[in-house]
From TrEMBL:
Catalyzes the conversion of 4-hydroxy-tetrahydrodipicolinate (HTPA) to tetrahydrodipicolinate. This is 4-hydroxy-tetrahydrodipicolinate reductase. NAD(+) binds at G8, F9, R10, G11, R12, M13, D34, G88, T89, T90, A114, P115, N116, F117. HAMAP family: DapB. It is found in: Cytoplasm. The gene is dapB. Pathway: Amino-acid biosynthesis; L-lysine biosynthesis via DAP pathway; (S)-tetrahydrodipicolinate from L-aspartate: step 4/4. Its EC number is 1.17.1.8. GO terms for biological process: diaminopimelate biosynthetic process; lysine biosynthetic process via diaminopimelate. The keyword Glycoprotein does not apply. (S)-2,3,4,5-tetrahydrodipicolinate binds at H145, G154, T155. InterPro entries: DapB_C, DapB_N, DapB_N_CS, DHDPR_bac, NAD(P)-bd_dom_sf. Residues 120-254 form the Dihydrodipicolinate reductase C-terminal domain.
Length: 256
C-alpha cells in the first residue's frame, strides 16, 4: 500500500485527486490538509489545518494541489519530514526547484514537481521542443479558467524552458515594433512571447504556434476535465517510490 496525504483536498484539483486515490487498490488515503477545513475527518482520513501537526502521520507520498504562494514551503516540509512530494501546484522559481532537488538528493528521497500531469500536455511540450529546433520563431497562447491565480501558467513556462534548450534566444517581431497598449505583445521569455487568456468555461488549454518562411505549425492540447490530470498523478505517486531524488516534469517517468 502507498500511503498518501493530499494537501489542498477541498480545491478543484485536490478533490479530484481524493477520488482518484480512493479508486486505486494500492493507495491508502492517510491525511488531508486544508487551512480552512472544519471537519476533523473526511473520506475516512484525518483532516489537518496546519501542516506542522502532520509530522507524525505515517505516509509515503504528499500530493500537493494548493496555491503558488505556499507550494515551496509545502514541498520543503514534505521532503524534510519523510514524505515524497508529488506536486502539481505551480509558481516555483528556478532557484526554488534547484534547492528542492539538491535537498532531495541529500535526503535520498524521491519526488516530483510536474507543471502539468496530463499526458497530452507532456507530449505537447516534447513535440514543441522538437519543433523549436527547426522553427525558432514561436509564441505560446495558454488559456485557463478565470479563477487561476498565476500567469503565465506553469505549463507555458515549462514549454518555453524546454524550447529554450534547443533555440537560441532572439528578439521576435519587428526590431522597431511598439506596443501602443501596454502588454499587447505578451510576456517575453528569451524572445518567445507568452499570452495568457482567462475566461469562465475554460479548464486548461495551450497552443504553441510556430512560424517560418511560407509555413506555420500549431500544436494544441486541451484539458476539458480535471480527470485528464489523474493518470499522471497516479503514475507520479507510484514512480516516486522507485527513485531517490526529486524530478521536475512528468516526462522523467515516461518512455518518450
Ligand atoms: N500540475 C497540474 O497538472 C495541474 C496543476 N494545477 C495547479 O494546482 C494548483 C491548485 O489548483 P486548483 O485546484 O485549481 O486551485 P483551488 O484554488 O481550487 O484549490 C487550492 C486549494 O488549496 C487550499 N490551500 C490554500 N493554502 C493551503 C495550504 N497552505 N495548505 C493546504 N491547502 C491550502 C485552498 O483552500 P482555501 O480555498 O480554503 O484557501 C484550496 O482549497 C494551482 O497552482 C494550479 O495551477 C492545476 C491543475 C493541473
Ligand atoms: O490552474 C490550472 O488549472 C492549471 N494549472 C497548471 C499550469 O499552471 O500549467 C496546469 C494546467 O494548465 C491547469
Amino acid at each position: 500500500m502507498i500511503r498518501v496525504i493530499i494537501a489542498g483536498f477541498r480545491g478543484r484539483m485536490g478533490s479530484t485527486a481524493v477520488n482518484m486515490v480512493l479508486e486505486q487498490t494500492d493507495f491508502e488515503l492517510v491525511g488531508l490538509l486544508d487551512p480552512n477545513a472544519t471537519d476533523k475527518e473526511a473520506f475516512g482520513a484525518p483532516v489537518f489545518n496546519d501542516k506542522k501537526d502532520m509530522v507524525d502521520v505515517k505516509a509515503d507520498v504528499w500530493i500537493d494541489f494548493t496555491q503558488p504562494a505556499v507550494a515551496y514551503e509545502n514541498t520543503l516540509f514534505a521532503l524534510e519530514n519523510g514524505f515524497r512530494p508529488v506536486v502539481g501546484t505551480t509558481g516555483f522559481s528556478d532557484d526554488q526547484i534547484k534547492s528542492l532537488i539538491d535537498l532531495s538528493k541529500k535526503e535520498k528521497r524521491g519526488g516530483l514537481i510536474a507543471p502539468n500531469f496530463a499526458l497530452g500536455a507532456v507530449l505537447l511540450m516534447q513535440f514543441s521542443k522538437a519543433a523549436a529546433k527547426y522553427f525558432p520563431d514561436v509564441e505560446i497562447i495558454e488559456l485557463h479558467h478565470d479563477q487561476k491565480k498565476d500567469a503565465p501558467s506553469g505549463t507555458a513556462v515549462k514549454t518555453a524552458e524546454l524550447m529554450a534548450e534547443v533555440r537560441e534566444a532572439h528578439h521576435q517581431g519587428a526590431v522597431d515594433e511598439e506596443e501602443t497598449l501596454s502588454g499587447a505583445r505578451g510576456a517575453d521569455f528569451e524572445g518567445m512571447r507568452i499570452h495568457s487568456v482567462r475566461l469562465p468555461g475554460l479548464v486548461a488549454h495551450q497552443e504553441v504556434i510556430f512560424g517560418s518562411q511560407g509555413e506555420g505549425l500549431t500544436i494544441r492540447h486541451d484539458s476539458y476535465d480535471r480527470i485528464s490530470f489523474m493518470t499522471g498523478v497516479a503514475l507520479g505517486v507510484r514512480q516516486v517510490m522507485n527513485v531517490t531524488e526529486l524530478k521536475y516534469g512528468l516526462e522523467h517517468f515516461l518512455d518518450l
